[in-house]
Amino acid sequence: MYYKKLVKYFYIFVTFLTIFSPVNVGVLQHLLGLLFMWFTYFVFFLGLKRVKRSIMKSSKSIGSFKMFPVVISIAYLVFYPVYVQFYTGQDVFSAAVNVFYGVSNYSSYQEYFSESGLNSFSTIKIPFIIGHGLLRFLFVVIVIRTIVYQSKIELLEKFSLLIMSIMIILVGLARGTSFELFELLMIYIYAIFARRSFRGYKNELSINVLAKLGLAVVLFGIYFSYNVGVRMGDDFNALNNSGFNKSSLVFSIFPSVAVLFYFLYDYFVFGIYFTSITITELWFGSLSGFLSMFIPGGIKLLGIDDSYRDFVGSYVNLGARWNSDTVVIIERYGIMVLMVFIYFLGYNSTKIFNKIDENIAASVILFYVIYIMISLPVGNFITTSSANVIAILFGVLLYKYKWLNKLLFNYLIPKYV
């Protein structure tokens, strides 16, 4: 199943990055975190059931669906400039210009966000939160419907997807974050894998697809490195950072790649290190620490510390870096709940997979199954994004209530013809 492979490929990427990142923390200090990550994959794999799928029939873009992406792309052009102005205090054009002039939008965004009181809940935020979530859901639907279900993508649809993608990127530029671009990359990778799987290709990745994905990843890496550099300021130099290992193999051969890996480490690998410290120092450190992983809120109930983050923070400087979602779930609900959740995520994904031909919401939910699984060892891909939470809710509602799915999408997204 293609979605299982995507999770596996991402875990391989995290493992590769752990081994080759030029940091002063050795691979062995990450080992237990890596093993725990792969154990969660094994639990997910156990939940999967073997299925045989026929090749998906082709469908043409007919009727009003041709105009549906156009309508939503117009909604993007209307909504997101207002959204950016509301959350960042600047217009989209100024935000884009700042990036090219090396001005940190992230700093101004954080400052405006705090001064305007946007860091606390208010009713005025509700339309923006719901609108953002709904448009994100519709974007995922359109990408999947256009790339996965249709045999041919028409020019008007390509243009609409381009407009929506650009607006999503501009939101990231205005915030000074790379999260939106990464998410966009994941959505398109999912759609490409799903398309090739459903069309009966033996390999999900042809040379042509690999070349395109490689180019997209390289462009993401370039922007990511540049964005982090701008955020850190002119005085920051990764090579002078105490955490950078100049003796690493990657730095001796490809210095520029080593700097990129160093930046990526904080986002994609630090959660592994966080988990390793939790295992070695807390769970294996004492009997009460071991028991704490089975008890919801155990670390505080047993008087060890206020939270896992406070505990790990006594061993390493956390800063603004993320901790893994696996540790968050274990802290709140216990390790058994985590394992049951992952198992049933795999188990139910198979049922959802079997409904893809008749319910487009199934494809959307499968994308978020992947996103949850890759978020577990890293952290915050789902929980920090209200858009993703709302998109998941929309997907579940449309999947569960077929009459609602038909009401909303049977006309806009017709059956195969």
Key features of this structure:
417 residues, disordered C terminus
Strand-helix topology:
Layout: H1 2-20, H2 31-47, H3 68-88, H4 92-100, H5 105-115, H6 126-149, H7 155-175, H8 179-198, H9 207-232, H10 249-253, H11 255-268, H12 270-283, H13 287-292, H14 298-301, H15 308-313, H16 325-333, H17 335-353, H18 360-378, H19 386-400, H20 402-409
Helix pairs in contact: 1-2, 1-11, 1-18, 2-12, 2-17, 3-6, 3-7, 4-7, 6-8, 6-18, 6-19, 7-8, 8-9, 9-11, 16-17, 17-18, 18-19, 19-20
Describe the overall structure.
By secondary structure, this protein is mainly alpha-helical. Helix content is 69%, strand content 0%. The protein has 20 helices and no strands. Helix 1 (2-20) crosses helix 11 (255-268) and helix 18 (360-378) packs antiparallel against helix 19. The longest helix is centred in the middle third of the chain and has 26 residues, at 207-232. The radius of gyration is 22 Å and the shape is globular. The two termini are 26 Å apart.
Give the averaged pLDDT, no decimals: 84
Quote the distance from N terminus to C terminus.
26 Å
Structural class: mainly alpha
The overall strand count is: 0
From the alpha carbons, calculate the radius of gyration and give it in angstroms.
22 Å
Residue ranges: pLDDT <50 for 5 or more in a row? 411-417
Number of domains: 2
The portion of residues forming beta strands comes to under 5%
Mass-distribution shape? globular
How are helices and strands ordered from N to C?
Answer: HHHHHHHHHHHHHHHHHHHH
Bin the helical content.
55-70%
For the biggest sheet, the summary is:
none
> Total number of helical segments?
20
